[in-house]
Design goal:
With 247 residues, the chain is of the alpha/beta class. The chain is built from nine helices and seven strands. It has a single domain, classed as NAD(P)-binding Rossmann-like Domain (Rossmann fold, 3-Layer(aba) Sandwich).
């Protein structure tokens, strides 16, 4: 284990699966105590915590639905009660529904906006009240805001909102040396990403990247690890692509 985050506490929303799991593990490897948030994946959250503990790290799993402001507040209250501080927030929880704009229902709209915008907003609000000076907020956005792909319209709209929230919050918290950035992955090789796609479709997306492959959860976790370091203290209010040169 590294020690650059020793004594620091990180909250990772959606931290039990896929990209979130990789981020939780990477922050623990760097020495942070990690709060692994999950909505329904109790089994996966427990596995993530055990992996961190087996590697000598510290982690707890906390159930909270990021669509509910009350649950969001409870997540941060549990963090305070357990660790007494908050240094890092990674807003990773989100959902994607591939659907053309004219096929989306009001229920679809409400569900995606509630998690992808409302959840991020209220997590940022809680962090603004609770985070120590010099902290780090990283909001997971998406490269689709640059590529404007068909069937990604509503998803791209929510991630565009996250990017704008990031820029404003960076200015609001700058006097406390808290940096706020958004990180935009390209396609990442997770179970969720592969669902419903043929190998031909996946290879077609890989070919769109300058580096000729889709990303891995570890690629995104490594990018997060760069933004939480002291050396990144002059980077704030930015959207950073982690997409292998896709866009």
């Amino acid at each position: 284990m590294d020690t650059i985050l020793n004594g620091k506490v990180a909250v990772v929303t959606g931290g039990s699966k896929g990209i979130g799991r990789a981020i939780s593990g990477r922050l623990a490897e760097l020495g942070a105590s990690v709060v692994v948030n999950y909505a329904s994946g109790l089994k996966e959250a427990g596995e993530t915590v055990r992996e961190i503990e087996d590697g000598g790290g510290i982690a707890i799993a906390v159930q909270a639905d990021m669509c509910r402001a009350h649950d969001v507040a409870a997540l941060f209250e549990r963090t305070d009660n357990t660790f007494g501080r908050l240094d890092i927030l990674v807003n990773n929880a989100g959902m994607l529904l591939n659907q053309t704009i004219y096929d989306l229902t009001e229920e679809d709209f409400d569900a995606i906006v509630a998690l992808n915008i409302k959840g991020v907003f209220f997590c940022c609000r809680e962090a603004a009240h609770r985070m120590v000076d010099g902290g780090r907020i990283i909001n997971i956005s998406s490269t689709v805001t640059r590529m404007l792909l068909p069937t990604y319209g509503l998803y791209a709209a929510t991630k565009g909102a996250v990017d704008q929230l990031t820029r404003v919050l960076a200015k609001e918290l700058g006097s406390r040396r808290i940096t706020v950035n958004s990180l935009s992955p390209g396609p990442v090789d997770t179970e969720l990403f592969r669902r419903g796609k043929s190998e031909e479709q996946i290879q077609g997306m890989a070919a769109m990247a300058a580096l000729g492959r889709i990303g891995t959860p570890a690629d995104i976790a490594d990018a997060v690890s760069l933004l939480v370091r002291e050396e990144s203290s002059w980077i704030s209010g930015q959207n950073i692509g982690a997409n292998g040169g896709m866009a």
